[in-house]
Amino acid sequence: MSESPGAARTVPPQPKALLGRLHPWPVRIMHWTNAAAMVVLIGSGWGIYDDSVILHGVYFPKAIRIGSWAAESLLWHFAAMWVLAANGAAYLIYGLATGRLRERLLPIRPRDIVLTVRDTLRLKLAHEDLTTYNAVQKILYIVAILAGISQVVSGLAIWKPVQFSGLVALLGGFQGARLVHFAGMAILVGFLAIHVALALLVPRTLWAMLTGGPVRRPSSPGPLKEAVR
Amino acid sequence: MRSPFRPSVVPDAGILDDHRPLVRQIERRGLLRGGLSLGALTMLTGCDVTDTSAVGRALRAVSDFNDGVQAALFDPQKLAPEYPASQVLKPPRFNAYYDVEDVKPVDGDAWRLELGGLVSDKRSWTRRQIADLPEREIIVRHVCVEGWDYIGQWSGVPLRAFLERIGADLTAKYVAFRTADDYPSSIDMASALHPQTLLATRYAGETLPDPYGYPLRLRTAVKLGYKNPKWITAIEVTNAYPGGYWERRGFNWFAGL
Question: What's the CATH number of domain B85-249, 3.40.50.12160, 3.40.30.10, 3.40.50.700, 3.90.420.10?
Answer without folding.
Answer: 3.90.420.10
